[in-house]
């Protein structure tokens, strides 16, 4: 048996296996085993065994594909300014991070799920759910990315990623991937501080400016007898590039007395239709504060209680820049204008302005036993609350809107979710026995309310007025699960289990103001499903493991998808059309894996296939006449994905000090059945699933010149992809397009002394200009200085 982090690490290790043992999104049980670090999984017969006394969402037995990275590797090889950066070089993963500090659009995608499907992955931090299942992707004027801001890079002890829905202890949202952040819990006194700065020169359309910011972080921790504690504080100031753009279709009307302006940039839509780009919108200037307190108490050598309190807030100014100039050189934002002799009318909200003020709080509490005897148990609960969540948007034209005027206030205060879990593990034959059975009960509850009000006076300060839209509702998932890991013969192990789920949606409503004919209250719904799981692992030889796994996943509609209808009001308006009768999506996923130990490296080859019926898909289209984005969710009949993933990682490859990890993923993901359509019946059948590229790859080369100096080169590639169900968006390199990309990164880290470390890095070194609806950052310089006591 080897520690998974011992000699072969993909960024710590690419451990594969077949299906998981029981995965509870809270804590694993086992105490550290000899020769295995307290927070590292260990591998035997292709099954990862978690030996951890720290909070984690990992189960005790994980016979499925798993990849990981340690804090040391993050510090040495990754320009990590946000917690999601730790996932940058994982096989088949992409986080749609648009700028440093992106808190509302950084959605995680996986092998068979695109960046519009945030509800098809699970993200945890110390067993606390960070994934936001109030909605999916981008809908009803808000976003449902994981709450990455509740974890900072400096807190991370390690990150593990499990691929696929192969554990009965995880809900159907695990169909894509499960990400588990384990943060620091000290064993002695420690103190850390870090300062960093970043900048990019961004050139696109009529924008040519520098955008950047700074970050400061500090943490303290200690263990005193039965008590241990850790505190972390972080502040990020960031100025992002334009993320959306004011555009207009070409006019055929001749100008007649309108104000003459210049500066419009000719361009092409995603369908290669000519249009004009008039300016850059959604330029966020944000100040984000993070604070974390973790406390643990050992009631006895075998029973520990842990509590986590997390706080995150942001104050954000959202501004816009017009490229248009009149004959006097002044910026023009609204009204009738003449461009190249043609007449146009600029709406007052074409160049939007808004102010956001958000405060979110999370709590996590767990009590667990660690006897490693016949029976162990755990009770865990968490709460995530939108303590304050307000967006004030102008409804009038610049420059007057910068100082006030009419607008809207969107308020999500009181929105949030809570989880409760009871878990048991039974070892009838002891820790090394033939059977290890996991079982448990879980309850996850979600509450959403989005109240958007009109403000007739000063949108920056006045109280809300009449209702523009008021939507909300609740969902609840109650589950019981059981699963047995059985070593039934030498070299063989199987895992069999099932998950029974009851899903309920209730209290749904949409309200568009007093007396509106579209005001609706929705009847409650309740549905039951069973999701079986099965896996088999065989030790083919001393250095080769073969694995097979299969599992069903049921992903239920979110509150936002069911009830979140809104009208297009304010800046950057979005009309979301809901559907209270959406069906859950049902997926069957299968993996076949071979993993070989090459001595100084580990090679994994995985064939995967996924068949999803009633896939829940959000599609957003733009109405240029009304300047409105229209978004709706629908069930897509059947999507079939077949693919192959090859991953390798090795230390001291070719020469001592040279480490390499890389991956290549092929995924053929197609819509095979669909009664719905985009333009004409049948126009989506046979088309590629949106935002799932056929090819993608990663590579990371790191060289340790000596114990103090490390240099790293990384590369990431993604092939062509589409955003629309009918694949009609053939031009990915434009606003609202989704393009291929190839980017390179470098990082040099130097240990100045025992306590001081400096690092300098560049992301997107080759300055590749690529898109995922929004433009990604261009070449970005990052510098940091770190102190460790």
Automatic annotation (TrEMBL):
<dbReference type="InterPro" id="IPR037066">
    <property type="entry name" value="Plug_dom_sf"/>
</dbReference>
<keyword id="KW-0406">Ion transport</keyword>
<keyword id="KW-0798">TonB box</keyword>
<feature type="signal peptide">
    <location>
        <begin position="1"/>
        <end position="30"/>
    </location>
</feature>
<dbReference type="InterPro" id="IPR036942">
    <property type="entry name" value="Beta-barrel_TonB_sf"/>
</dbReference>
<keyword id="KW-0812">Transmembrane</keyword>
<dbReference type="Pfam" id="PF00593">
    <property type="entry name" value="TonB_dep_Rec_b-barrel"/>
</dbReference>
<dbReference type="Pfam" id="PF07715">
    <property type="entry name" value="Plug"/>
</dbReference>
<dbReference type="InterPro" id="IPR039426">
    <property type="entry name" value="TonB-dep_rcpt-like"/>
</dbReference>
<keyword id="KW-1134">Transmembrane beta strand</keyword>
<keyword id="KW-0675">Receptor</keyword>
<keyword id="KW-0472">Membrane</keyword>
<protein>
    <submittedName>
        <fullName>TonB-dependent receptor</fullName>
    </submittedName>
</protein>
<keyword id="KW-0732">Signal</keyword>
<dbReference type="InterPro" id="IPR012910">
    <property type="entry name" value="Plug_dom"/>
</dbReference>
<feature type="domain" description="TonB-dependent receptor plug">
    <location>
        <begin position="61"/>
        <end position="178"/>
    </location>
</feature>
<keyword id="KW-0998">Cell outer membrane</keyword>
<keyword id="KW-0813">Transport</keyword>
<comment type="similarity">
    <text>Belongs to the TonB-dependent receptor family.</text>
</comment>
<feature type="domain" description="TonB-dependent receptor-like beta-barrel">
    <location>
        <begin position="329"/>
        <end position="765"/>
    </location>
</feature>
<dbReference type="InterPro" id="IPR000531">
    <property type="entry name" value="Beta-barrel_TonB"/>
</dbReference>
């Amino acid at each position: 048996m080897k520690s998974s982090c011992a000699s072969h690490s993909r960024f710590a290790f690419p451990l594969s296996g077949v299906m998981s043992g029981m995965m509870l999104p809270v804590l694993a049980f086992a105490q550290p085993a000899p020769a295995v670090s307290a927070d590292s999984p260990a591998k035997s017969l292709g099954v990862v065994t978690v030996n951890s006394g720290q909070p984690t969402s990992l189960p005790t037995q994980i016979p499925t594909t798993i990849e990981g990275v340690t804090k040391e590797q993050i510090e040495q090889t990754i320009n990590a300014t946000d917690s999601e950066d730790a996932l940058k070089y994982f096989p088949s993963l992409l986080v749609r991070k648009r700028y440093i500090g992106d808190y509302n659009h950084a959605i995680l995608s996986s092998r068979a799920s695109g960046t519009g499907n945030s509800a098809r992955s699970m993200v945890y931090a110390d067993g606390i759910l960070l994934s936001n299942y109030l909605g999916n992707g981008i809908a009803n004027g808000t976003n449902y990315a994981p709450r990455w801001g509740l974890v900072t890079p400096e807190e991370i002890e390690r990150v593990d990623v499990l691929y696929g829905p192969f554990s009965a202890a995880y809900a159907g949202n695990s169909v894509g991937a499960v990400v588990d952040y384990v943060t620091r819990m000290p064993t002695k006194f420690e103190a850390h501080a870090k300062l960093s700065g970043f900048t990019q020169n961004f050139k696109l359309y009529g924008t040519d400016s520098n955008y950047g910011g700074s970050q400061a972080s500090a943490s303290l921790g200690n263990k005193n007898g039965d008590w241990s504690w850790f505190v972390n504080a972080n502040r990020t100031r960031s100025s992002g590039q334009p993320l959306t753009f004011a555009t207009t279709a070409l006019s055929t009307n001749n100008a007649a007395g309108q104000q003459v302006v210049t500066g419009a940039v000719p361009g092409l839509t995603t369908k290669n239709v000519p249009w004009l780009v008039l300016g850059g919108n959604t330029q966020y200037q944000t100040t984000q504060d993070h604070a974390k307190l973790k406390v643990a108490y050992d009631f006895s050598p075998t029973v520990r209680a842990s509590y986590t309190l997390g706080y995150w807030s942001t104050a954000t100014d959202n501004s816009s820049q017009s490229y248009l100039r009149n004959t006097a050189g002044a910026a023009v934002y609204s009204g009738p204008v003449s461009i190249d002799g043609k007449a146009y009318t600029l709406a007052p909200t074409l160049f939007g302005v808004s102010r956001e003020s958000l405060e979110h709080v999370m709590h996590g509490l767990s009590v667990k036993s660690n006897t490693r005897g016949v029976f162990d148990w755990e009770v865990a609960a968490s709460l995530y609350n939108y303590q304050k969540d307000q967006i004030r948007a102008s409804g009038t034209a610049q420059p007057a809107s910068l100082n006030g005027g009419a607008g809207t206030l969107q308020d999500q205060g009181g929105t949030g979710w809570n989880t409760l879990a009871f878990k048991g593990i039974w070892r009838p034959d002891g820790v090394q026995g033939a059977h290890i059975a996991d079982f448990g009960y879980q309850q996850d509850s979600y509450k959403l309310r989005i109240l958007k009000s009109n403000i007739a006076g000063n949108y920056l300060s006045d109280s809300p007025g009449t209702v523009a839209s008021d939507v909300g509702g609740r969902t609840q998932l109650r589950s019981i699960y059981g699963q047995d890991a059985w070593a039934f013969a030498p070299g063989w192990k199987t895992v069999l289990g099932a998950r029974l789920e009851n899903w309920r949606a209730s209290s749904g409503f949409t309200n568009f103001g007093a007396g509106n004919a579209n005001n609706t209250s929705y009847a409650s719904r309740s549905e039951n499903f069973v999701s079986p799981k099965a896996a088999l692992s065989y030790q083919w030889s001393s250095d080769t493991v073969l694995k097979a796994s299969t599992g069903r996943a049921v992903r239920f509609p979110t509150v936002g998808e069911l009830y979140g209808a809104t009208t297009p009001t304010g800046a950057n308006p979005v009309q979301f059309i809901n559907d209270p009768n959406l069906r859950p999506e049902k997926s069957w996923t299968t993996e076949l894996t071979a993993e070989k130990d090459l001595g100084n490296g580990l090679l994994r080859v995985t064939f995967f296939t996924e068949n999803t019926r009633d896939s829940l898909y959000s599609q957003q289209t733009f109405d240029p006449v009304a300047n409105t984005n229209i978004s709706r969710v629908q069930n897509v009949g059947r999507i079939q994905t077949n693919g192959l993933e090859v991953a390798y990682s090795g230390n001291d490859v070719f020469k001592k000090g040279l480490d390499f990890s890389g991956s290549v993923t092929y995924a053929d993901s197609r819509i095979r059945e669909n009664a719905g359509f985009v333009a004409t019946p049948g126009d989506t059948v046979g088309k590629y699933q949106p935002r799932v590229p056929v090819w993608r790859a990663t590579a990371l080369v790191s060289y340790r010149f000596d114990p103090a100096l490390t240099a790293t080169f990384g590369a990431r590639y993604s092939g062509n992809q589409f955003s629309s169900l009918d694949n009609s968006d053939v031009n990915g390199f434009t606003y609202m397009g989704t393009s291929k990309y190839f980017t390179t990164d470098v990082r040099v880290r130097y240990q100045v002394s025992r306590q001081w470390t400096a690092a300098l890095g560049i992301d997107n070194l080759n300055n590749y200009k690529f898109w995922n609806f929004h433009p990604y950052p261009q070449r970005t310089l990052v510098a940091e200085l770190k102190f460790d006591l």
